[in-house]
Design brief:
Helix content: 25-40%
Strand content: 25-35%
Shape: globular
Number of strands: 17
CATH superfamily of the largest domain: Zn peptidases
Number of domains: 2
Order of helices and strands: HHEEEEEHHEEEEEEHEHEHEHEHHEEH
CATH class of the largest domain: Alpha Beta
Length: about 350
């Protein structure tokens, strides 16, 4: 049975309406700053990073990325996928964004209402509707055509118009990753005294750099970090098999064993069903291999990237909410999973 508080739901309803397109997150940082300071946190801005701290900053540390997918105006009545622009159209291995991924994205956002905004203040700059999208073979990026934003100038971010819905015991909206960001803000209402990091440009593969810079300047001797996010599953049945998703590793690094075991112990203590996503993907890959099909990635996370690049400075583990409809306006997560997730966070800082 879920016991999500009205305060948390109201917070999520409020902040999901504020845009935070990849590479244009400043205005969302302002929204978070207000909510955090109202809850007693001390808030500091850095490039690509908002840090909220209580009275015991090194007791427990959580991190969530706050960017969401959207578009950027790149010319007269021309809009491109923001994550590809922010990442210079490449991933960390310098491989071009695959045609397959682009094709999937073109199918996700047909006839989706959007609105333009000023990136620093969040001021409204008009609304429109996506009428078509196609892959430009010369620029290797998605081009979106929008009715209603003909006056937008290059550099203007365009967000997907969003509103939280609750249907069939599930939260529905563009949840990645405003859902877990809201949870970390809510922690300060519950008496949290540690540190929370909110990172920009995770969807472009850049957020870990901003986080690592903070630890290089201010980190202590034990930088155990809990990174929170959503985790995609193909359908509701698969997502509902577990309340929480854990990891022992990702494609970049092995996570801190002690931290991972602590999260698993809390799951058992609280009777939260869980799976390890890396083991789940390895099982799928064994089945694919038997059929002679190519394996899938076990996943790449913000934490894995920072562990791999920090030379032992930062370590930790992840806790994720299982969702369906990944990177769409219909992403959904079970109320029971979100409730378990919030209780997990509370247990972690109480045990610190």
């Amino acid at each position: 049975m879920n016991t999500l508080s009205n305060e948390f739901i109201d917070l999520l309803k409020e902040i999901i309406r504020h845009p935070s397109v990849v590479g244009a997150e400043h205005s969302f940082f302002r929204v978070l700053q207000r909510e955090l300071e109202e809850r007693g946190a001390t808030v500091t801005w850095y490039e690509g990073l908002l840090v909220a701290q209580g009275k015991k900053p090194f007791s427990t540390m959580f991190s969530a990325h706050i960017d969401r997918h959207g578009l950027i105006c790149t010319g007269p009545n021309e809009f491109q996928y923001a994550a590809f622009i922010s990442a210079n159209r490449t991933d960390l291995l310098n491989n071009s964004v695959s045609e397959e991924l682009m094709t999937k994205i073109t199918e996700r956002f047909q006839t989706t209402p959007v609105f333009a905004y000023e990136p620093w203040s969040g001021a409204y700059r008009g609304q429109g509707m996506i009428k078509s999208s196609y892959v430009c073979e010369f620029r290797n990026n998605l081009i979106f055509e929008i009715d209603g934003l003909e006056s937008a100038v290059a550099g203007t971010p365009v967000a997907f118009k969003d509103k939280l819905r609750i249907e069939n015991e599930r939260l529905i909206g563009q949840l990645d990753n405003v859902l877990t960001a809201a949870a970390l803000v809510h922690l300060f209402s519950l008496g949290f005294e540690g540190t929370v990091f909110f990172t920009a440009q995770e969807e472009a593969g850049k957020s870990w750099r901003y986080l690592l810079e903070w630890f290089r300047r201010f980190g202590g001797s034990t930088n155990r970090l809990f990174v929170v996010d959503t985790s995609p599953f193909p359908d509701e049945d698969a997502a509902n098999e577990q309340l929480l998703v854990l990891r022992k590793k990702d494609a970049n690094a092995t996570f801190n064993e002690e931290a991972t075991q602590l999260v698993e112990a809390i799951c058992k203590e609280q009777q939260f069903s869980y799976i390890y996503k890396d083991e789940y993907m390895e099982k799928i890959n064994r089945l694919l291999a038997e059929r002679g099909e190519a394996p899938r990635s076990i996943g790449s996370t913000e934490l894995g990237r920072i562990i791999a690049s920090s030379n032992g400075l930062v370590d930790g583990t992840t806790i994720q909410v299982p969702t369906t409809g990944y990177h769409t306006m219909e992403e959904s997560g079970a109320l029971a999973s979100v409730d378990a997730f919030l209780k997990m966070l509370k247990c972690l800082y109480e045990k610190a």
